[in-house]
Amino acid sequence: MNTLWTDDARGACRMLPAHEPAGARGGVRVRHAHAHAPASRAVAADERRVDLHAHTVVSDGTLTPAQLVQLAARKGLAALALTDHDHLGGIDEARREGERLGVEVLAGVELSVAHRGEDVHVLGYLVDPREERLAARLAQLRVERAARGRRIVERLQALGVDIRLEDLPPAQSVGRPHVARALVDKRIVSSVQEAFERWLGDGRPAFVPKAKMDAAEALALVHGAGGVAVVAHPGLLSERRYAIVRELAALGLDGVEVEHSRHTSEERRRLRELARELGLVETGGSDFHGENKPDVDLGYGHGGNVRVTYDVVTALRERAAARR
Prior knowledge:
Distance between the termini: 22 Å
CATH class of the domain at 138-200: Mainly Alpha
Shape: globular
Structural class: alpha/beta
Strand content: 15-25%
Largest sheet: 9 strands, mixed
CATH architecture of the domain at 138-200: Orthogonal Bundle
Order of helices and strands: HHEHEHEEHHHEHEHEHEEH
Number of helices: 11
Number of strands: 9
């Protein structure tokens, strides 16, 4: 059973004593320590904090992959999943830094899915970044993202807003947060939130819908790349959120993001019960974006309301192995 605590008093990060060997402290050595340590220490290793949902400048975060891993090390995280939107380009850099600092880096990606009229996000974990079909589809999505970014800027210009494509911060996977950041930098709005509320959010004057794949394709791509598929932040979906989880499970979903910075305690309880009923892995993460979501702390969420432990990584690996 996955260890997922939301009580911050219980969730304080356990630091290993200084006399323990480096191999027990984290990163890619976790499995080695788990295999050879006494049972009591193996349990403690499983309880170390991880974050399985974080973004970098490769998509809509504000830290580079190396900087994100450095922050993870300072926070005492044993493992970190990079889950940039439609892009796996930050994985190699993050892994090099993770090897240096003792933080295990999992290859991940966040996909936008159209499912029965709703925008659903699917997290793919443990995928092979070089698998040809996934890489080709992601490249296509990034081309469509860039075109969408141009259309958003054109709409803003038509509305009299002084903004150009050159004003957007550099990114390999362009999204609305890049436009929002440019509006902030040019002092057209005071915050990213204001940019979305005034111009960029769904139904606002400069909104442009993004290209999405259907759920079956997303799950097939993730599984074809050797990974496992998890529905992201289902608590942010419509009133059909629990029905959507059931529908995706019928298509081959592997897990549910139970712990998330914006999930209420009641949503977590219901999602946990549903995951256990459907035999899905209970996962979680902060959904860290750096300065684009300044109230979300890597590994801890909003005000310490997220705690995910290393045994979730183990559960994901077991699920992936069972699919092979």
